[in-house]
Write a structure and sequence with these properties.
By secondary structure, this protein is mainly alpha-helical. The protein has helices at about 5-15, 20-30, 30-35, 40-50, 80-95, 100-110, 115-140, 150-175, and strands at about 20, 55-60, 70-75.
Length: about 210
């Protein structure tokens, strides 16, 4: 799974309707350019591609009064919402995805109802534990990873990473069950996107040809 589709669909959905530069600005505000493949070219390509696939609806806007070129604004379709929710659920439960996929899912987890979020996170822990049980019998000898030569450190790294991931997930479940954050159906959610014209203190400031489209 690629994080960029989930990130772009989620950002457009939060705005209701947004042009490409707004989506880029939001994702840079989240620092996504540091922990994912959400670079400007990837963002603009994803917007155009998902518009062709019917997940987004492209609206051509009039040129600005300042004389700038017209921009395309995107709006998520019903099919796009279904895809977004499917990606979000899969990203939460799939333990073997890259870290950027889980990071993107955490950013949108409050779009789910609280009970569903907890259930999906519990599925994640179960998947981690099942994987761990399946490999430890063969790849983590009691006498330590050295018995397999330095190659033993590979699975040692993965098992420790899995344990850390499970521990983090349990902590998140505990915080959510304790009432942290505002989930779907509970009231006004936390605003994680920038308003039109709001300055982004974390913007890279690096121009891209897609910024004007």
């Amino acid at each position: 799974m690629s994080a960029i589709r989930l990130l772009v669909l989620g950002a457009v959905r939060q705005h209701g309707r947004a042009h490409g530069y707004q989506v880029r600005n939001d994702l840079e505000y989240w620092g996504a350019h540091e922990w994912s493949n959400a670079k400007p070219g990837s963002i603009y390509h994803a917007l155009k591609q998902m518009a062709k696939q019917g997940l987004l609806l492209a609206h051509e806007t009039a040129p600005s009064t300042a004389g700038g070129p017209p921009r395309t604004e995107y709006e998520i379709t019903d099919e796009g919402v279904r895809e977004y929710r499917s990606l979000l659920r899969a990203a939460i439960t799939s333990y073997d995805q890259k870290m950027d996929v889980l990071s993107a899912a955490v950013g949108f987890i409050v779009d789910l109802e609280r009970g569903e979020a907890v259930a999906l996170l519990q599925e994640r822990i179960a998947a981690i534990e099942a994987w761990r049980a399946s490999v430890t019998e063969y790849y983590t000898p009691a006498e330590g990873p050295e018995s397999l030569g330095h190659i033993g450190e590979i699975m040692n790294l993965w098992v420790h990473s899995a344990d850390a991931g499970a521990e983090w997930t349990r902590g998140l479940i505990e915080r959510i069950e304790g009432g942290a954050y505002t989930f779907s159906g509970e009231g006004e959610p936390f605003v994680g996107v920038l308003a039109e014209g709001e300055e982004n203190p974390y913007a890279t400031g690096v121009p891209d040809p897609g910024d004007d489209h």
